[in-house]
Write the structure tokens for this entry.
Amino acid sequence: MPYDVPKGTKTEGTPQPGDVDLVGEEFSKFLRSAHGYEEGWVGRKPLGSGMEAIAGMWEKRDDTGRVVDQVVIKQRGTNEYKPVWSPYKPFEVEVMEDLCARPKNGIVKIRGYRRYPESERHRIYMDYCEHGNLQRLISAYRAKS
């Protein structure tokens, strides 16, 4: 699969009424954008943002409305900060691919990577971990013990 999305694919969608009040303008546009990797995905919730990236969870549902898959999309380049554009695969992707290729690595699986040349952004597609990061899972476990 080519890394570049089809020409005209946007990294921002049009927020629906009430979206901005719930999650803010940047997340609203991000979650309403096209998935960019496969059809049938819908942005569901923001997961976090930093100076260089924004992340959200997308869901895919079957005909009955049941969730059949979830994925995290991390988009490098935000409205506040755009790293210097490079047409090359980000080093972060290369490291994740290398680590995921190792047996029993404990690393979140990278599902794919796409480049958005027109908006000079990159998207990394990863497995969604329902319990967040390892520190949150340990804290939740300790709280129940």
